[in-house]
Amino acid sequence: MSEPASISTSIAARYATAVYEIAKDGNAVDTLETDLDALKTALSESADFRALIHSPIYSREEQGAAISAIAAKMSLSDTMANTLALMAQKRRLFVLPQLVATLRDIIAAEKGEVTAEVISAKELTKAQAEKLAKTLKASTGKTVTLDATVDESLIGGLIVKVGSRMVDTSIRAKLNSLQNAMKEVG
């Protein structure tokens, strides 16, 4: 892991632990999950929001005012709004994506859940997703939440990542394997 990524992860972990403990003490973990959904959507859909948290051209005051207005507009909880304001004041908004991911991991671990990252060539149907989740639950012994994305370059099949384990059943991987085997032969 590169040093800047390690630093970002470390900062995010400290904030995530603190936010989770505050939410847990206030019996507001469900509210925190709602906040995380809203922030994840905003991060993925708004280039302006991403620019605000990553760009050094905005002053602390500008970032703080903007993030407070965004938090109010998104109806974020006081805990999350105050955390974002503190992060803006300390020039730490750049770790927001890692904060969201780390908080999700903490909440999932507390609930005995695990998230499986699934990349497929085509979008999974509801029945396929349910069957995959059920199969993964049987293998991990935990409730599995799927984080599904589509990558048409796979041609067919799936790539499933659960924790440190990965299973690649894509046609692209099989073709690459066959190509490597043919190189070795001749």
Specify the oligomeric state: single chain
**Number of helical elements:** 8
How are the strands of the largest sheet arranged? 2-1-3-4
Describe the largest sheet. Answer: 4 strands, mixed
Terminal-residue CA separation: 37 Å
Q: Which outline best applies? A: globular
- Average per-residue pLDDT, rounded, comes to 92
Structural class of the helix and strand makeup?
Answer: alpha+beta
Protein name: ATP synthase subunit delta
Organism: Roseobacter sinensis
Membrane topology: Peripheral membrane protein
Main location: membrane
What does this protein look like?
With 186 residues, this protein is of the alpha+beta class. The protein has helices at residues 3-25, 29-45, 47-54, 60-73, 78-89, 96-111, 126-140, 171-185; strands at residues 113-120, 143-150, 158-162, 165-168. It has a four-stranded mixed beta sheet, sandwiched between helices. The radius of gyration is 20 Å and the shape is globular. The model has no long low-confidence stretch (mean pLDDT 92).
